[in-house]
Amino acid sequence: MSPVSKPRAVVLLSGGLDSSTCLALAQAQGRDCSCLTIEYGQRHEAELRAARRVSEMFGVTDHRFVRVDLGAFGGSALTADIPVPKDEESKGIPVTYVPARNTVFLSLALAMAEVQGAQEIWIGVNAVDYSGYPDCRPEFIEAFQGLARLSTKVGVEEGRAPRVVTPLMDLSKADIIRRGMAAGVDYALTVTCYDLDPEGRACGHCEACALRAQGFAQASVPDPTLYR
User: Fold this and answer.
1) Which of 16, 64, 168, 194 is the most core-located residue (most Cβ within 10 A)?
2) Please, which residues have CB within 8 angstroms of residue 110's CB and are 6 or more apart in sequence?
């Protein structure tokens, strides 16, 4: 009797807390994971190094790095010379939003999944403890799923497309951390800060740092973040 093959999944991995948890949960649920990390013109190489550390920790053998320069368009504090807001609560969609980022990321993951015959794409978007980005909402994921069915060979010829899986969508940051800890994530390997220094140390004052610190506090888990 031949062994049953694991479902294949492409996991979008940024090196941050959420995407690292997403990878851990995918593996815990029996997926054969490949990882995709996008070099999109973000300010800091530390994110890419973190993604590599996390994929190595989980024994991922297929980890692709793809360069797409969203910084060529600017419009975000993460890709252009725009100050990252500190110690303030954003009103509306913040300046750290990168235009079309998740649309581009999911499109690339869709291409990778279709070529590999992967049944799923996992992405760590969240609509609870997040910065209000429009491309992290359930409505966006649902719309992209429809696009995937219309735009792929498997969608047209076979009536199916890789399923976009969002295991963190409705979780608080504390719950994400609890589930990640249970699945073996070493959060000391991850980075979240919007304004890291050249050594990869977090600022402790941007919105991403605040949400991360709040999550660890509410989960009653020591915060392993390296602050400058």
Assistant:
1) 168
2) 121, 148, 151, 152, 161, 162
Q: What is the pLDDT of residues 135-169, one digit of tens each?
A: 999 999 999 999 999 999 999 999 889 999 999 99
> Can you give the length of the chain in residues?
228
Amino acid at 169: M
Instruction: Please list the helix, strand and coil fractions of the chain in percent, rounded to the nearest 5, in that order.
Output: 40, 10, 50
DSSP 8-state class, residue 119: S
Give one DSSP letter per residue of 139-174, joined into a string: HHHHHHHHHHHHHSHHHHHHS--PEEE-TTTT--HH
- What domains are there in the chain, each with its CATH number? 8-219 (3.40.50.620)
Query: What is the model's pLDDT at position 199?
Result: 83
Q: How far apart are CA 80 and CA 226, in angstroms?
A: 24
* Count of other CB atoms within 10 angstroms of residue 151: 15
Extract the tokens encoding 228.
């400058």
